[in-house]
Amino acid sequence: MKQYETVIGLEVHLQLSTQTKIFCGCSTEFGKDPNSQTCPICLGLPGTLPVLNKKVLESAIKIGLALNCKINSLVKFDRKNYYYPDLPKAYQISQYDFPIAHTGYLNVKTGDETKKLGITRAHMEEDAGKLIHDPAIKSSLVDYNRTGTPLVEIVSEPDMRSPQEAYDYLTTLKLHMQYLDVSDCDMEKGSLRCDANVSIREEGQTKLGTKAELKNLNSFKAVKSALEFEVARQIKLAESGERIVQETRLWDESKQITISMRSKEEAHDYRYFPEPDLVPFMVEKEDIKNVRTTLPESPSKKQDRFIKNYKLSTYDVDVLVQDRKISDFFEECVKEYNQPKKICNWIIGPLLQEINSNEKGISNDRLSGINLVAPTAKTFTDLIIKVEDGTISNLVGKSVLTSMLDRGKTSAEIIKEQNLAQVSDEGALEEIVATVIAENSKIVEQIKSGKESAIGFLVGQSMKKTQGKANPKKIGEMIKRRILND
Amino acid sequence: MKLNELTAHELLDLIKTKKETAASIFSAVKRAIDALDKKINAYAHISEKPIESTDSSKENPIPIAIKDNICIKDYLTTCSSHILEGFKPPYNATVVNKLLDSGALITGHANMDEFAFGSSTETSFFGPTRNPWNLECVPGGSSGGSAAAVAANEAIWALGSDTGGSIRQPASFCGVVGLKPTYGRVSRYGLIAFASSLDQIGPLTKDVEDSALLLNLISGHDEMDSTSANLSVPDYAKALTGDIRNLKIGIPKEYFIEGIDPEVKTNIMEAIEVLKKKGAQFKEISLPHTEYAVATYYILATAEASSNLARFDGVEYGLRCHPKEKRRTPIIDMYEETRRQGFGQEAKRRIMLGTYSLSSGYYDAYYLRAQKVRTLIKNDFDEAFKEFDAILTPTSPTTAFKIGEKASDPLSMYLSDIYTISANLAGIPALSLPCGFSKDGLPIGLQVMAKPFDEEMIFRVAHTYEQNTDWHKKKVTL
What we know:
- By secondary structure, chain A is an alpha+beta fold.
- Chain A is 41% helix and 20% strand.
- Chain A has 3 domains: 284 residues, no CATH class; 121 residues, no CATH class; 60 residues, Arc Repressor Mutant, subunit A, CATH 1.10.10.
- In chain A, strand 12, helix 3 and strand 13 form a beta-alpha-beta unit.
- About 3% of the residues of chain A have low confidence.
- Chain B has one domain: Amidase signature (AS) enzymes.
- Helices cover 35% and strands 14% of the residues of chain B.
- Chain B has an 11-stranded mixed β-sheet with strand order 1-3-2-4-6-5-10-11-9-7-8, with helices on both faces.
């Protein structure tokens, strides 16, 4: 069998999280009543005209700079013409020959290496509305709330060589975009969408093979699965001597296959031409420089700095840096309480567990999760300090955290309310220790005969009886003294 | 003289001196509409009561007709097309807001060529408008309804739109004053686009002074229109000085070649003599790319139109039709049938031309090349205005032609705009005013052009000419 090389390029649409739409003043808020977030302009009513939202331009320049792109100082828009009921003007205002950003790259960790993956271009455009197909009324309804929501389309070079690399590119891209705070990057809400171009070629070839464009990829996992399926399908065709045709294929999530949607011949002629309603203008070099100064530290720079400054392991830092808000929170906590490793453990352990579990009704999206959770650096480090100084046990500390996240109260309030303070007073623990020793004569014998490690079991029993409030260190000392001094 | 036969500045004097009221003026105009419009058909939609703003300044209670492609809130706005049947916009065009704020009384929507596609107002879904000077003739177009309404005293003022001559050519045919302002002088927000890079709203009035007054009311930067110029607007009334001594005026030789009606030529030459006597200096000039203007225009204008008119698809508003039998998918069937029934012949012709020139493989040869020629044409004017204050030409090579005469010959119809198209391509202001009559009694128009944002120069020249002639005082007898 011949060896094949996979070639993948991705087109990512990012919905920008600006307050208002790209060409009118309507709100971009997600999930509102159909057609409630519309005006004559985004409805494309005759006679209306677009006016560019400058915030969109700023976000797009940010994205371009973060992806190491060159910025086109000429800002020009074009019309992409096609008919669809969710596109009220029957053209989309987009950028054709002068994308706001071009010729960049993104460093992506994949397997053991870091690959520099090329970015072809990033351009601004407006989103379309949404069709709702209602079988009950035998017709389709259209919701124009999303119409005119700003998008930036980021097109990569065909630089990825496996579905896994594509997956890693997407997670890295998402992380960088989240750091910029320009988009929610939430595939479920459609604020990040991805189409994939994939082809195969015989190992050693330099010419690109015939590509298929994959659509309807609704999660990063779907991107990977669809690419894996498609690569296998194309290899099978090549092996059996059949021709691979250029086409657009849809991913069927339930069947886990791709199906042909349209061939190259059926492809649209979008008849791009310059948008006459928006006069091209120049962005000043100074303005681009100003945007550059607002760029946050990139995830990879932050990673290096955390390892160096806080002496944390690569694993710890990887987890912290996965989320800009979490990593910022970590640093705020360190300012409150200079114990980086302890704080890191509390964050990547109990805190992320809480945030990631749906039981609390906390979103899986950790960005919004941390907003809902609401511990401040002060309340969070107060809790850690209370565990460290023995006010409460480690175990009680975790349950106090759960209550803090649920109810937004401070650790002191919860400890007082539920009477959770750790008991270290020997007088108060005397009775418990006596009972546990009396109830576990066999274990006591084992300890006496030299198996000191069995003390741990008795400590555990004591903790149970005090609902974790007893100071385990103290209990251990007391049990040891009682048994061995007897 | 009847009130509706007066100019706005005469009426405003009567109001100021409390000799007349806004209501009596409107009534006079409304009576004329009721008496004449069945014959003239200047209006697509007539409002029984004036459309007005309750909290306006009341300073300019002038009855005004608005071309049917300029949006009036909650009032039928249909571009004289079947496809916009029943469409009432939920908003006012910026110019309509400005007029209503000033106290204007809107009489209704003036008839026009469908989507402003035409030079005769024959392509309207509501039937042709007739020329008040001769009911067998066209009023010109596409703002033929606006021009005819003013000429027939069915309105004191009118607004039109001009993409390739659509204000000036009907002004010429109907013996009124029509101005296409500089591109960007007047907001296009609420003007249903034909060709966005060429369209401009402008006044049609009975004399030059009224044109200046109306331009004062509608000009200025608009945040809703990115193509409107962020420049201060002068008081155009102050430009009417009557002094044109030592102004340098160019006569482009390319505008006096074959095809021009000898009567038109004679009248323009006489007009030049009038202005010479008032101290202007004339010289023949060349605008060498003039011969490409019509071809360039029809590529660019139809390209933009094909995209601008794509939204009329039966989904959101206006007409929606379904074919009797299924042809393709339900949505495509609906699109096709709606557009098949909704658009007239000329609209379809232009949509197809524009779609073709934007198509992959043809774009460079047509659209892109036309853009380059447009720049050359603009450069011709830039060069000329380095030396000259104004340029004088006929507005149209002929006087009004007969209804039906050119309807089946689009090319000869397109040539009717041969003198007006260049101003749109170059973005410069241009005005047409009456400069005589043919032996058949049809008006002839004189066109004055100036450099961008120098409407004052145009008004100065046109007003001086008008003050020294009587053409504008000649009234239609109906």
